[in-house]
Amino acid sequence: MIRKKAKRKATKLLEERKPKVIEDPKKSLILSGRKVNKELKTLLQDLHRLRSPFSINFTQQLHDLLPFEEIQPLEKYVKSEDTSLFLIGSHTKKRPNNIVLGRCFDHQILDMVEFGVSDLKQMESKASLLNVFGSKPCIIFKGDEFKNNPEFESLRSLFIDFFRMEDTPEVNLLGLDHVISITSLDNNTLAFNHYKINFEKSGQKTPHVELVDIGPSMKLQIRRKRWASDDMKKNAMKIPDVLKKSKERLKNVFRDELGNIQAKIHVKQQDISTIGTKRYKAMRKGVAEETEKKVDMMEQLNKFLHGKRKYKAGTDGSSSSGENGDAASNGASSSATSEPSKKKVKK
Fold it and tell me: Region Disordered: what ranges (predicted)?
């Protein structure tokens, strides 16, 4: 059998679908099941509008899909459209107002959860302004179940994957114009609300913020669920080697409680003599040695002079005592000679 070469357009499409180090934004495929009522169809269209432009809408036609019974037909749709997220709506007597939310890895179903929809409120016309380029939702999860229950933790990651769309390093605060709030009411029920953020004047620098419910808002009751196996989950969460190397470079880097990046720097012991500081003349190596030699010579000279002074002082003392004795004897003789002369004068 001779295989024809793929055309240029087909090869380009296949290259785009190959795994990448930094993946493109996740696309979602929104489908309608065997039977869909009017309320559920509007909900699927509203969720498609929330995810646009990263969403493909196939709700115009009905599809024979039973994801919990047969996976292969759904995986065909996912592979043909190259999407990693899907949402299916169906309405039967056994399971009325039913939606199935799931995600895929390598065109195979990873996680899948079935919800029953009640207390549905449609999206208002104001929400059409949210499709502006760069508009991003602020996703809030309320309830202790999202921290304590492992199933609710995986539900949380599933909702984040579905609604976050693009990964951006920086976000303009004016671009955060709507809020998606998901609240756990009990172990089996969630409340989904969608609000628009209105900034009003407050007379200060920070504006007054108001949340307006614009829909869709509903209650979701968890019905059936299917989580990924450990091996498949491990493969899906595997980090490429290129990103691992870049992570190793950021050693001793961490975030504090406020989210600020901090780092520890380990400095080796430095040789002070090699530091390029201002060096004075007295601190130079040759000058210091010369000054030490001069000091030694001065000490030796002082010792020598001190010894010489001692010797001179001893010799001077002995000569002065001899002179004093001679002077005394001379005085006595002179007095002896002078006395008889005086007597002679008196006579």
Answer: 305-347
Fold of 24-233: Rossmann fold (3.40.50)
pLDDT single digits (tens) 172-209: 777 788 899 999 999 999 999 999 988 888 888 888 88
Q: For the whole prediction, is pTM greater than 0.85?
A: no
Backbone dihedral region for residue 81 (phi beyond 0: left; psi -120 to 50: alpha; all else: beta):
alpha
Measure Cα distances from 169 to 130, 172, 284, 340 in Å: 21, 10, 53, 133
Any idea which of 145-149, 157-161, 245-249 has the lowest mean pLDDT?
245-249
Q: At what angle do helices 38-51 and 150-163 cross, to 10 degrees?
A: 70
Whether 311 has a pLDDT exceeding 70, the answer reads no
**Is residue 30 within 8 Å of residue 59, measured between CB atoms?**
yes
Beta bridge partners of 62: 32
Strand positions, DSSP E, 227-332: 253-255, 261-263
Q: How far apart are CA 259 and CA 239, in angstroms?
A: 23
Q: Round to whole Å and give the CA distance between 102 and 226.
A: 9
SS3 125: helix
For residue 150, whether the previous peptide bond is cis, meaning omega lies within 30 degrees of 0, is no
Domain residue ranges of the chain, discontinuous segments joined by +? 24-233
pLDDT score recorded for residue 286: 64
Q: What is the pLDDT of residue 344?
A: 47
User: Which of the 8 DSSP states describes residue 84?
Assistant: S
